[in-house]
Amino acid sequence: MVKDMKMDDCLALLARNYIGRLGYIYGQSPFILPITFHHDPNEKCIISYSAEGHKLHAMRQYNVVSFQVDEITSIQNWKSVFIQGRYEEIKGSSTKLYLNRFAEGVRNSFKMRKEEPPAFIKDFSSKLEDRGVPTVYKISTDFISGKFRTS
């Protein structure tokens, strides 16, 4: 039976994960892409970064987005958190602060999972090296819900 997750459980799932799927609209078509992220529970936002391209262009035009993170053990045992929110680029002196918060948050997620964290932010995404300075952004959370199933 599928049940609703409590908010504390949703936040815990977000804290221990660093890969999620970002949903956005480009033109009249939906797109979903995996991204590396950090959930900042104090600011109630998802923090990430990207090289210039399709995703950023789309979110600049229409800033309403969705985000999902899953933990799947089997078809009978899974948890999923869904977020609706708004894309916002981080500019100026705040950029470095958010990028550091992102990197530290991802490292902490690795530690919670007892995985070896990457040494450098470039290790999160190797393709950025060839595409210039990344754009740091956040998704301000309007709505969070979670579902789970256990056997």
UniProtKB/TrEMBL annotation:
One Pfam assignment: Pyridox_ox_2
InterPro entries in the cross-refs: Pyridox_Oxase-rel, Split_barrel_FMN-bd
Protein name: Flavin mononucleotide-binding protein
Species in which this protein is naturally found: Croceivirga thetidis
